[in-house]
User: Fold this.
Amino acid sequence: MGWTVIPFMAIVLIAVTPALSWRQYRIRRSIDLSVTNPLIPDNKLPTDLVPVKYALQLEIDADQLAFHGNVNITMACAKQTNQINLHAHNDLNVDEGNIEIVEYTAGDNGKANTLKIRRVDRVPKKPLLVIYFHDDLTVGTTYEARINFKGMIWENTEGLFQGKYKTHDGDQQEDHSYFASYFRPNHARRVFPCFDEPSYKVPFLVTIVRPKHLKTLFNTEVISSENLAQDKVADTFDTTSPISTFALGFVMSDLTEVVSDQDSEGATTKPIIRIWARRDFHDQVKDVKMKIQTVLDHLVKFWNVSFPLNKLDIVALPNFSSVKPADNWGLVVFRESDLQNGYYGIAQELVYQWLGTWISPHWWSDAHVNKAVAGFVAAATTIDIDNGLEFEGKWPMTILYSIYYEFSKRYPHSRITAIKQETTCSKTELVLRMLNLTLGADTFQKGMQKFIEHRECKTFVSNDIWEALTKQAHLDRKLCETATINEIADSWVTKDRIPMVTVHRDYQKNTATITQRVYLRERPHDVPEQDKMLWWIPLVVVQQDNLNFTNTSATKWMKKVKQVTLENLTNADNFIIINPEEIGPFPVNYDERNWNLLASYLLDEGGRSKIPVYTRAKLLHDAWNLAYAGHLSFATAFNMTLFMQFERNHLVWNPVFTLIDHIGRHIDMSAVHKKFEIYVRTLLTPLYEELAQNQYEGEEKWKTNLRSLAKTFLCRAGYKPCIEEAQKVFKKWMDSPEPDLGNPVANQYICPVFKSGTQDEWEFGLQRVINFPESRVRSERTYLLKTLAGCPVQASKINRLLNLTVLEDNGNFTDNDINLIFKMLSGGSSGYMALFDFLQKNWDAIKLRFKDREMLWNNLINSATGLFTTQEGYDMVSQLYVQRQGEFGTAQHIIEKSLKNIKEETKWSQENLPVIEKWLDNFLNQHKISDDRFIR
Assistant:
C-alpha cells in the first residue's frame, strides 16, 4: 500500500474542498508579515523634522487611469538640519520645480516666510525625496511643505488601483469600474510625498475629486461637497484622528448601501455601521451588519474601550484581487467571498481597528506581535459568540500541530523568511493563549486593557504588552514578584524551537522529575547549542484520582532550568497528565508505566469520556511524534492508538491520518508494511462504515470531512467498495463520445482507479492529458498528471509514463510536467524505486536528453535516490554512486546528500522496524481480520 502516493496535505485538499476555512483566512490576515519583515532593516527617516498634520487634495482621472493632487505637510523642526527628507516612490511624479517651503515664525502673528530651496534630489534606487536649503532650519519652528504630484493608477493593489466588475439585469450586462487605495504597509508613498512610517501618527484633512456618478467612502464622513466643471464633485472629509499613513484609505465606486432587517429609522447607535456592495450581491451580505455589531459588542467588552470612531464602513469589493482585506481606519475593504464566512475573518479585521490602526506598532519589528494578539483575540471572540462553530473545534490544534512540525525540523522554515515570520507569529499567538490560561482569563483581559489604556492614537513596542500583563499578574498575585511576562514571552518568541518536557515518576515516593530539552523530530538531532536552550514552562498537572481539567493554573513553573521535581503526586496505580488541553505549545513524554496507565484508561469507555477531546488528541499526537523522533518506543506509541477503535471524535482522528502517512512513508519499502496496512484497515474500516451508514442531509461538516478522509485512506488501501464505485463512475467518462471536452469524474475517484484499476483505465487518463484542449482550465490537466504519476504502484504504468516523457521526449509534456512527475514519484516506494530502476537502465540516454537541462537532471537524481530508508536502499544507491563516479555533474552534491540521509534513515529503520513488527504481529494474532473487502 503506497501511503505516500500523494502527500497528506494534497489528500486533504482532494477530499475536502470548503470555500474558505478559518485556517486559510488566518494566513491571509491584513498584516502581511512577508511584506513587513523586509522593511525591518530599512533606514528610518531622520527625526530632524516630524509631521504635525497633512492637507491632501487628490483627483482621479478615470479616462487616463491617472491621478494628480497636492499635499501640504505641516512639520515641526526638532533638530538642527538643512534638509527635509520625505518618502516618494520612484513612480510618483513630483513637481520639483514648484515645491514651496513656508516657515511660520512665532512673532508677527505667525507670519509666513517662503524659504529659498537650494536643490531637490530624488535618491537613486530609494523612494526618497530630499529638499535642501542654503541655511539651517530653526529648531522649534513650524514649517509647511507644499508639493504637487501626479501618477498612474495600476491594477495591482499597491497605492491607488482600479477594479472592474459586471452586473446583469435580465439579458442586459453593464460594466462598472471603481478606484480604491491600499496603503498598507508602505504604499502611501506611491500616491503622495509623506513620512511613510508607522510611528508618525498625525491628522489628515483630505479632499478627493470624483466623477459625479460615483461615491467616495473615506476614513471619515464628508463634511462638504462642491460641484465642479465636467460633472465632477470635490468631497472634503472630516479631519481624521492622528493615524499612520498606512491607515489612510478610500473607495470611489457606484456600490450601494445594503439595507438589512436590523436597520431602523433614525438609529443613532455609535458607530454607525454601513455595508456597501454591488446591488446584485446585497442578499448575500444582508446579515453582515448583524455580525459586525455582534463582534464590535464583544470587542468593546474585551478592551473596555468604545469603538474609537463614529462610523464604520464595510465594503464588499467585487474582483478585489488582494488576498488581504484593507483595514483602513473606519473603512474596511473585503473581498466579497470573505464576508460570506463566519465571524473569525470579521473579528480579525475589527481587532485591527483598535490594535494596529488606533494604536499602531512603532516599527515593523513589532508587527508579528500585533498580528498574534489580533489572531488570539479574534479566535477568542469567535468562540465567545457561537462556540467557534466555524472552527469545528480545530482552534488552536491546527496551528499547534504545524508549529510542532515546523520547529522540530533541523532547519525550520526551510530558511525561508516569510515562513519564519508566519510561524513565529503563530507561536506567539499560542503563547498568548498559554498566558490567558495560566494567569486566568480575567487577569489576562485586565492586562490587555491596561496596555491599551491611555495609548489612543499612539504607538507601541512588543514589550509594552508584556509589561502590562506583568503588572496585572503581580497585582492579582498570579505571578511571583521576581518573574515577568517579558522573560516568559521572550524565552518562547525569540527561539526557532520549542521544548519537549519529559516526566519520570518515582512511584515509591509519589514524586516526578521533570526535565526540558529542545524538541527535535528530524534526525540527526545535531542542532547547535541545543543544550543552552531553556524556556519558562508552566507545569499544569492533572491526576487520575482528581480529573479536574478546568484548573489551568501552573502547579510549578520551570524558570529556564533543566530540571524540577513535582511532589505529593497520586499513588502508583494512577496516571498523571502534564500540559492537558495543550495549555502550552510543547509535547510531553512520560515513563513507560505512566504511558501504559493512560493507554489502559483510554480503552475503557467510562474512563475515556472523562478525558477531554483536546487532551485525548494531545496524548495520541505526542506519543506518535515522540516515537517517530526516537524519544519513545513505538510499542508504547502503538498501545496509545488502541482506543481509536472506539473513538469517533474528529478532533482526535485528525492527527491520525498524518501519523499514518508519516509512518507509512518510512516503512513503505519494508516487509513490515503489509502488516501495518492491515492494522490501518482495522482502525479505519469500522469508522468509515459507521459514518457511511449514518449519513444524512444537513449533517455537521466535520462528519462529512472525516468520512471523506477515512474513505480516501481506505481507497488507497484497496478497499473494494471504494475501488468499484470509482471504476463505475470512471467508466462513464470512458464511454463518453467526446471525453476531452470535460471531466465528469470527481477528483476523489481518479486516484483509486489509477492505482488499483486496469492498465486500460490508466492509459485512458494518459490520453486525456496528451489531448487536453487549450480551452479547458489547465489546473485540471495538472491534477490529472499528478494522479497519473503519483497514484499507480505498478511499474508498468510508471515506466510507460517515463518512457513517453523522458526518452521519447513527447512534445505534449513540458519540462515543468516532467519535474512534476519526478516529484509525484518520490511520494512512495513504488514510484521512487521504479524511477531509480529507470535511471539505472537508461543512464546514457537520459544524460543525453538532459544535457542542457540541469534542473531536470538534478531533480531526477534527487527524486530517484533521496527517499530510500533501508540498508537495501542504501546499498542500491551506493552502488550507483560508485558505478557512475564522476558522471553526476551538477547533481554530485545531491547524490552525496542522498547517501548521507539514507544512512540516517537506515539507522531509524534498524532501531524501530523490529519493534513495530513485533507489536503488529501481536496485534494481528489477537485480531483475526478478514481481507475480503480489500484488493490483495
Observations:
- Residues 34 and 416 are 10 Å apart (CA to CA).
- Confidence is low (pLDDT under 50) at residues 1-20.
- The radius of gyration is 32 Å.
